[in-house]
């Protein structure tokens, strides 16, 4: 029991510690690049969990999985904010979070069924498969350079993507 608590603590610590640097790098390299990196890390963690027969590797794999979680959580929400007009950012992040939560619920049910009927490795091979699907999806569906605060809706002019000014801002001279 204590080992499980320690492993999950290390997972959460890794996720927390990587979130800020991932956000910084996302501002430099773009959301797409960082999300691709997170899916590659998820692929590595999934294959590691599926193939590992060494219990000593479990904490290392949980750290790797924590890196994926920290990057994908922070950059995914940021990308959601980038893709909607400024006045709908909270709504966009809300829809993103609801969608991710519902897909995680379905994934958990599928994972439980795979574990019960096929075995634990099937769960992680399934995760690896969806990591590859995510990588392909990002490469095909998300334009290069996406992110860095870019407003990507084709129906809006670039001026509409600027954050609204506030009354308390002083004009520049």
Briefly summarize what is shown.
The protein has helices at 2-29, 31-51, 58-82, 89-117, 120-141. With 173 residues, the chain is mainly alpha-helical. Mean pLDDT is 87; it is low at 153-158 and 160-171.
How would you describe what is shown here?
The protein has five helices and no strands. It has helices at residues 2-29, 31-51, 58-82, 89-117, 120-141. Helix 1 runs antiparallel to helix 2. The protein is globular and about 45 Å long.
**What is the radius of gyration?**
19 Å
Q: Helix segment count? A: 5
Q: Please write the string of helix (H) and strand (E) elements.
A: HHHHH
Beta-strand segment tally: 0
Mean pLDDT: 87
Query: Beta-strand level of the residues, as a percent range?
Result: under 5%
Termini distance? Answer: 64 Å
Structural class: mainly alpha
Fraction of helical residues: over 70%
Characterize the overall form: globular
Task: Report the sheet with the most strands, covering strand number, pairing sense and barrel closure.
Answer: none
Low-confidence stretches: 153-158, 160-171
List keywords for this structure.
173 residues; mainly alpha; 0% strand; 5 helices; single chain; 72% helix
Draw up the topology in text:
Layout: H1 2-29, H2 31-51, H3 58-82, H4 89-117, H5 120-141
Helix pairs in contact: 1-2, 1-3, 2-3, 2-5, 3-4, 4-5
């Amino acid at each position: 029991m204590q080992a499980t608590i320690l492993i999950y603590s290390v997972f959460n610590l890794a996720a927390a510690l990587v979130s800020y640097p991932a956000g910084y790098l996302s501002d430099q390299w773009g959301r797409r690049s960082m999300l691709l990196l997170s899916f590659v890390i998820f692929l590595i963690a999934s294959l590691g969990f599926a193939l590992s027969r060494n219990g000593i590797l479990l904490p290392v794999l949980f750290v790797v999985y924590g890196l994926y979680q920290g990057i994908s959580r922070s950059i995914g929400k940021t990308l959601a904010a980038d893709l909607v007009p400024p006045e709908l950012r909270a709504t966009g992040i809300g829809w993103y979070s609801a969608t991710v939560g519902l897909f995680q619920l379905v994934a958990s049910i599928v994972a439980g069924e795979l574990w019960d009927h096929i075995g634990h490795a099937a769960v992680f091979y399934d995760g690896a498969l969806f990591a590859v699907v995510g990588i392909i999806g990002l490469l095909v569906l998300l334009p290069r350079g996406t992110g860095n605060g870019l407003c990507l809706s084709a129906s809006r002019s670039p001026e509409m993507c600027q954050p609204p000014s506030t009354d308390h801002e002083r004009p520049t001279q």
